[in-house]
Design goal:
Helices cover 32% and strands 27% of the residues. By secondary structure, the chain is of the alpha+beta class. The protein has four domains: 91 residues, Rossmann fold, CATH 3.40.50; 56 residues, Dna Ligase, domain 1 (2-Layer Sandwich); 128 residues, ATP-grasp fold, B domain (D-amino Acid Aminotransferase, Chain A, domain 1), CATH 3.30.470.20; 97 residues, Phosphoribosylglycinamide synthetase, C-terminal domain (Glycinamide Ribonucleotide Synthetase, Chain A, domain 4), CATH 3.90.600.10. The strands form six sheets. Strands 3-2-1-4-5 form a five-stranded parallel sheet, sandwiched between helices. A five-stranded antiparallel sheet has the order 12-15-18-23-20. Helix 8 packs antiparallel against helix 9. The chain binds adenosine monophosphate and glycine. The site of glycine (GLY) has 8 residues, from loops.
Length: 425
């Protein structure tokens, strides 16, 4: 079977890497992909943009693609599954259920309707009303742009002035464009964060092994929010008892609620959670694999992922084989200097093959580009050095031993990926 992955980041390289391990797969195309995908024996990039549905349709028909896997949220929110699914199975939620990520107002109302635990909130479409509310509520308080803002639309305000500034940025300064036309103001949740990614087929929902990303740019969870600077799996904050509560209180009510609402949920359901004294609370839902969570979850998966994707598409997930190893996996992102603010591109990257030489290390490309014989930087998060092994401490050391072999001008990374998990063990 030939598989088409849509997207170009570290998540998509990791998806293509895992899909290529399936014996049933002869070729993995990635549109538009990155040099990491091209380096896979079965991998090939195709120059079709993420939003080019016409190009994707023509390619699927010409190549006889048997499965499409959609990586990022934007095409899902725009309805790429609805637009392609007459041609072949397409893994991901349709446009209606994808609003769970595309609109925080939709997600909050959905959770309220179906009794899914989440922070108390209010929704605003003018800055003045939001500011009055924030002054009444006091800080800490959280301000969120309604729409998709590449993980940057959220401000955890430690004082009222900071909240007001965030409201004005979104609604008056329009720094998130239309995504900030509406905002959510919600109560600050205490606790430790964890991500649960689950496969769903409209009726059945099955969580993967747990993982945790590091959203803050700098060590000690300081600095601005990013797409994610590293991740580890498993996340010890999620005990087996907690995982059961997450299934019962969050995942199943979500998939059942979507079915009741007439918009069955298929694909990946990603719950970003705060694990606090009262149990799990939903911070956000995403409708696709996390980046960089994918880079630590898929290396632990021992079953073939392709039949699982197909089972999600045809409603037979309850019969799928899903297994994982008992080990640990850690990924550390190497980012361009300045990220998540502005940064330069085109810096030559060296040492990827050196890092890859360790059989328990893989470098997943994200913002990279082939430039003649060189691989150069082409984005904020450039690549993720991923290591696996039995013991968390040794796995963290292995990931950093790989990371220091890779370099480019201005490279930045966090030095404390996985530390929280080590402290807890
Ligand atoms: P989101 O994009 O909604 O996941 O928010 C980004 C980050 O902001 C989360 O990963 C949390 O670290 C933080 N955050 C969001 N909402 C809350 C909340 N209600 N209480 C505390 N922290 C939050
Ligand atoms: N790592 C967070 C996300 O993918 O949304």
């Amino acid at each position: 079977m030939k598989v088409l992955v849509i997207g170009s980041g570290g998540r998509e390289h990791a998806l293509a890497w895992k899909i290529a391990q399936s014996e049933s797969v002869t070729k993995v195309y990635c549109a538009p992909g990155n040099p990491g995908v091209a380096s896979l024996a079965k991998g090939e990039n195709v120059a079709i943009a993420v939003g080019d549905v016409g190009g994707q349709r023509a390619f699927i028909e010409a190549q006889g693609i048997g499965l499409v896997v959609v990586g990022p949220e934007d095409p899902l929110a725009d309805g790429v599954v609805d637009a392609l699914e007459d041609l072949c199975p397409v893994f991901g939620p349709r446009k209606a259920p994808a609003q769970l990520e595309a609109s925080k107002a939709f997600a909050k109302a959905f959770m309220a309707r179906h009794n899914i635990p989440t922070a108390a909130y209010a929704e605003f479409d003018t800055a003045a009303a939001a500011i009055t509310y924030v002054k009444e509520q006091g800080a800490p308080i959280v301000v969120k742009a309604d729409g998709l803002a590449a993980g940057k639309g959220v401000t955890v305000a430690t004082d009222v002035d900071m909240a007001i500034a965030a409201i004005n940025d979104a609604m008056v300064g329009k720094v998130f464009g239309d995504a900030g036309g509406k905002i959510i103001v919600e109560a600050f949740l205490e606790g430790e964060e964890a991500s649960i990614l689950a496969f769903a087929d409209g009726k059945t929902v099955i969580p993967m092994v747990t993982s945790q990303d590091h959203k803050a740019a700098y060590d000690g969870d300081t600095g601005p929010n990013t797409g994610g600077m590293g991740a580890y799996s498993p996340a010890p904050v999620v005990t087996p008892e907690m995982l059961q509560r997450i299934e019962d209180e969050v995942l199943k009510p979500c998939v059942e609620g979507m079915a009741k609402d007439g918009t069955p949920y298929t694909g990946i359901l990603y719950a970003g959670l705060m694990i606090g004294p009262d149990g799990p609370q939903v911070v956000e839902f995403n409708v696709r694999f996390g980046d960089p969570e994918t880079q630590v979850v898929l290396p632990r998966m021992t079953s073939d992922i392709v039949p699982v994707f197909l089972a999600c598409c045809n409603g037979t997930l309850d019969q799928a084989d899903l297994s994982y190893d008992d080990g640990t996996c850690v990924t550390v992102v190497l980012a361009s200097g300045g990220y998540p603010g502005s940064y330069e591109k085109g810096k030559v990257i060296t040492g990827i093959a050196d890092a890859d030489a360790d059989p328990q290390v893989t470098v997943f490309h994200a913002g990279t580009k082939q430039d003649g014989d060189d691989v150069v930087t082409n984005g904020g998060r450039v690549l993720a050095v991923t290591a696996w092994g039995d013991d968390l401490k040794a796995t963290i050391e292995r990931a950093y031993a790989g990371l220091v072999k890779v370099s480019f001008e201005g490279a930045q990374f966090r030095t404390d990926i996985g530390k929280k998990a080590l402290d807890r063990l």
